[in-house]
């Protein structure tokens, strides 16, 4: 009889140990889930911030476009006024050569400025691309929508509650009436 009670006590202790291990495992899963939710929130905030930066860049580019349009209008008006102004001009070969040299210098300078501008825009685009890649890479992983998460979350706690109540009821009957297997 004592051997049977001892084996039952060992089985009961093993069950308690399994419950403790399951609780520890659940705690670890909850920590991992909290960490994943924190990463999701941080990545969402980063993505929102980068989206605002893109909106500001678009606004700046639109303002630059309008500025260029205004400059073109001003140049056209100046050309029209120049055409309407009567002038007597004498062009010598030396003046033509000076004008040609000035035009060449201006075109070379303009080409250099455009090249520098294109390089700066290319670097900006590469920087933005790398930031977006980082943000997108941070979003890789397991995604669970809120509804599915809530279903599993409350199902787990419902089953846990039923299990704990069943164990409590079993212990109550065991204490009150003795072990049912002794019948």
Ordered list of secondary-structure elements with their pairings:
Layout: H1 2-84, H2 93-138, H3 146-177
Helix pairs in contact: 1-2
Give an overview in words.
Helix 1 (2-84) runs antiparallel to helix 2. The chain is rod-shaped, with a radius of gyration of 39 Å. The chain is mainly α and 183 residues long. The protein contains three helices and no strands.
Strand residues, percent: under 5%
Q: Helical content, roughly?
A: over 70%
Structural class: mainly alpha
What gross morphology would you assign? rod-shaped
Global mean pLDDT = 82
Largest sheet: none
Quote the distance from N terminus to C terminus: 13 Å
Low-confidence stretches: none
* Integer-rounded radius of gyration: 39 Å
Can you tag this structure with a few keywords?
183 residues; mainly alpha; rod-shaped
Could you give a short description of this structure?
The protein is an all-alpha fold.
């Amino acid at each position: 009889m004592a051997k049977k009670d001892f084996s039952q006590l060992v089985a009961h202790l093993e069950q308690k140990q399994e419950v403790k291990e399951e609780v520890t495992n659940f705690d670890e899963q909850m920590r991992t889930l909290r960490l994943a939710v924190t990463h999701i929130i941080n990545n969402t905030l980063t993505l929102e911030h980068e989206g605002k930066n893109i909106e500001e860049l678009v606004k700046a580019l639109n303002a630059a476009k309008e500025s260029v349009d205004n400059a073109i209008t001003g140049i056209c008006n100046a050309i029209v006024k120049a055409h309407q102004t009567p002038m007597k001009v004498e062009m010598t070969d030396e003046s033509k050569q000076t004008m040609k040299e000035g035009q060449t210098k201006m075109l070379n300078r303009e080409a250099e400025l455009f090249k520098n501008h294109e390089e700066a825009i290319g670097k900006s685009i590469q920087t933005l691309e790398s930031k977006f890649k980082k943000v997108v890479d941070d979003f890789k992983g397991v995604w669970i929508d809120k509804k599915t998460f809530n279903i599993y979350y409350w199902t787990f706690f419902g089953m846990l509650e039923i299990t704990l109540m069943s164990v409590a009821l079993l212990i109550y009957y065991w204490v009150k009436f003795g072990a049912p297997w002794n019948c």
